[in-house]
What we know:
The complex is a heterodimer of chains A (about 180) and B (about 800).
Chain A: E1 20-21, H1 25-34, E2 38-42, E3 50-51, E4 54-55, H2 56-67, E5 70-73, H3 78-83, E6 89-91, H4 94-101, E7 117-121, H5 125-138, E8 143-146, E9 157-158, H6 164-177
Parallel strand pairs in A: 1-9, 2-5, 2-7, 5-6, 7-8, 8-9
Antiparallel strand pairs in A: 3-4
Chain B: E1 3-11, E2 14-15, E3 25-34, E4 37-45, H1 70-79, E5 81-84, E6 90-91, E7 99-100, H2 113-147, H3 164-170, H4 180-197, H5 206-235, E8 246-249, E9 259-264, H6 269-280, E10 287-292, H7 294-302, E11 307-310, H8 315-320, E12 326-329, H9 338-344, E13 349-351, H10 368-377, E14 382-384, H11 388-402, H12 407-410, H13 414-417, H14 429-433, H15 440-448, H16 453-458, H17 467-471, H18 478-485, H19 487-492, E15 495-498, H20 506-517, E16 524-527, H21 538-549, E17 553-557, H22 558-563, H23 575-578, E18 588-592, H24 597-611, H25 620-630, E19 633-637, H26 643-654, E20 659-661, E21 670-673, E22 683-686, E23 692-694, E24 701-705, H27 709-719, H28 727-745, H29 767-776, E25 789-790
Parallel strand pairs in B: 9-10, 9-12, 10-11, 12-13, 13-14, 16-17, 16-19, 17-18, 19-20, 20-24
Antiparallel strand pairs in B: 1-2, 1-3, 3-4, 5-21, 6-7, 8-15, 21-24, 22-23, 22-25
Amino acid sequence: xxxxxxxxxxxxxxxxxxxxxxxxxxxxxxxxxxxxxxxxxxxxxxxxxxxxxxxxxxxxxxxxxxxxxxxxxxxxxxxxxxxxxxxxxxxxxxxxxxxxxxxxxxxxxxxxxxxxxxxxxxxxxxxxxxxxxxxxxxxxxxxxxxxxxxxxxxxxxxxxxxxxxxxxxxxxxxxxxxxxxx
Amino acid sequence: xxxxxxxxxxxxxxxxxxxxxxxxxxxxxxxxxxxxxxxxxxxxxxxxxxxxxxxxxxxxxxxxxxxxxxxxxxxxxxxxxxxxxxxxxxxxxxxxxxxxxxxxxxxxxxxxxxxxxxxxxxxxxxxxxxxxxxxxxxxxxxxxxxxxxxxxxxxxxxxxxxxxxxxxxxxxxxxxxxxxxxxxxxxxxxxxxxxxxxxxxxxxxxxxxxxxxxxxxxxxxxxxxxxxxxxxxxxxxxxxxxxxxxxxxxxxxxxxxxxxxxxxxxxxxxxxxxxxxxxxxxxxxxxxxxxxxxxxxxxxxxxxxxxxxxxxxxxxxxxxxxxxxxxxxxxxxxxxxxxxxxxxxxxxxxxxxxxxxxxxxxxxxxxxxxxxxxxxxxxxxxxxxxxxxxxxxxxxxxxxxxxxxxxxxxxxxxxxxxxxxxxxxxxxxxxxxxxxxxxxxxxxxxxxxxxxxxxxxxxxxxxxxxxxxxxxxxxxxxxxxxxxxxxxxxxxxxxxxxxxxxxxxxxxxxxxxxxxxxxxxxxxxxxxxxxxxxxxxxxxxxxxxxxxxxxxxxxxxxxxxxxxxxxxxxxxxxxxxxxxxxxxxxxxxxxxxxxxxxxxxxxxxxxxxxxxxxxxxxxxxxxxxxxxxxxxxxxxxxxxxxxxxxxxxxxxxxxxxxxxxxxxxxxxxxxxxxxxxxxxxxxxxxxxxxxxxxxxxxxxxxxxxxxxxxxxxxxxxxxxxxxxxxxxxxxxxxxxxxxxxxxxxxxxxxxxxxxxxxxxxxxxxxxxxxxxxxxxxxxxxxxxxxxxxxxxxxxxxxxx
Lengths: 182, 800
């Protein structure tokens, strides 16, 4: 367990408040299912992350579809989602997204209200670290989850530092446990 | 009898009535009739002689103080609100602490997290600005001593506005290098005030901290200008692009048969004396002088026989190559373990600045031959010499004497360089320590089994920080492995770099001013800053090329100006060879070193003054208002690393110039972001009528960290739009924005309706397609106004 609490870059130590590590993947799935307005944020490294049947974008699309999540594609990633005909995906720079998430008056991409759970994956480690730090400090009511395989101390919850194969099985299990919402 | 007497009292940073002191007094009598006679146009200023040749009346803000531009800054900060991302949740600056500031907690002094983050931003900007100011002070003091106070400033060909920042901020026109002292005194005084504001129990509001950071940035550009125009004037540097020849860069540019001197840092003075010594003694065929970081640029500006070894990220790699026979350090961006590293290759170190003495003995007053003897024998691994003339002699004599003794180091065997790599434990510490999490461990393991390809591929991506080695429990020399894996290729690398041209001339400004202000030249892109790239320096060349093809004016300085030389086309030519070195559409200009950044912002100021005839003298707000609303300039510091980069950026922000940084730039702890979804944030005044008008989100951000190069490219096109664009100009800019979005995002921009003011803004060839798109978005013709834009009430010509 201690290895899981090690940040993805040696010196990226946060302050006194740091992320809890999920005991098991089913907890992630049930948190997503319980959320009223969840948002999945996919970063620019996603195409480089190889999965069993594609890359992290494919996993993101599955999570988005099964969990009925809105997806925010950061960097220049939107084209990849469009190519794969994913729906409910919005393009936004990572910094802008962080800025809006800390604004309680922001009503989301669809104008229907602020998000209550934001899940991050596929971002540059240190950028995600910083955006999560901004949210930890200035959006105290927002719950955040890091689905990356390197521990993100500034999230509310994180998978923690795990190797690639373990990470992939965790993601698969999360997807399997996300029943399609009606 | 008529008495018209105005009395202006100046203090640095204030223009108000106050208790008189000698330095403050300025009495101006426009006309006085008395029993003694008539006096007209008399101005007496105690402390300095007012320049009588500059007819322009004094503007409203000479020598502005810390709070003078607070209102202007807050206008910008209200539109571009800071998004803070603490790099540390604690404050540990006083003995009350550490204090936990997470969320809504406060420290023992009462500070909150926002204020703490902005305080750190201010401190970074103060450090950066102080560094350039100290550089300028060292430079100016030396040049005053050598050339005298009355040495005339001669900055650029056919140029009257020789010092736009000094004129704009301080309100006077320097004619000699002695005249620069007053501006430098002012900058130093203000920086002390700013640093004091960061003390415990002083400033407590985040936006006031931000305003002070802007002030530090503005001062920084004055200081950089002083440093560069004094050296241009006295040292014979190029005075514009027509005088800038090509110089050579890279490992392959060095003739290793000669004694090799490696100069690291930013202050050219020691190198000047080394070059002078080589010339005086006709030794250029026996000694090679190369530089790393900005000293390298300025060496080539002095004499283009000097070589640019590379950007800051090549420092450790270059030492490990064993090529340098002697290392000279001046100031800034020096690896702090340089003495230890140089000792490993048997190369002595000569420190030349009191700011970077590195624990070495001060031999300034010793006999040069005695110093040489101690260095050559190895009795001393390095020395401090603060007298430049002595530096030249000791450096050349030592390098020539040491070189023949260093054969074993100069060409280290691959066996030696690859030593111990089989000891890799596979612990991943190197990967976790790497700023870019490069797959170092896999590459080292593969290399140990004979496959050099992975390490060789990492070489151009490595920022050269050496954290991997520091983290390695086996103390493996990973940087040496990377060099060794690609040494054969490195040794052949020789690139052409156009020598830094210095200030943009008045003639060039006149020729392009209209095109820039009306948007017909789509923008000015400045590629500046350090080499902390996420994916190597080649990305800078990719950005530059994209905008050169699109006929932007592309300027470069510092490490970025070096890195964009390293990408070659199929014919083996780099961008300096492919594109003209002119300040015009589609031109690529290497402006010079870090301190030359002042000429980039200076060019935008000169556009407002020379092209638009806006008063320059102590008229900062109006000029900034002009630049912000009309000049489509964007800065990209793709590898920004230092506090100097922060203060350079801050100087751009106060002038309203947006700056994009690479992903590592997010570690500056905050972005200044506009909200395009909030129409109320984008209301501006129409100077013709005083009416409020919605202008759309242009430019959308003031300081912005991009996640990928593709994002940075598309954002650059977007940030080049200004409310003043003509319809033709906006159509050109929109066509680039749309085209780049399609190219890099694979899709149309999703916010196009925010930038189209009327049908005439639409690029002609895409009009039908775009109108259909806009219709779906509910776009309305005329919703976005085309005012004579200003944020300043005083610029309104006819108030209702």
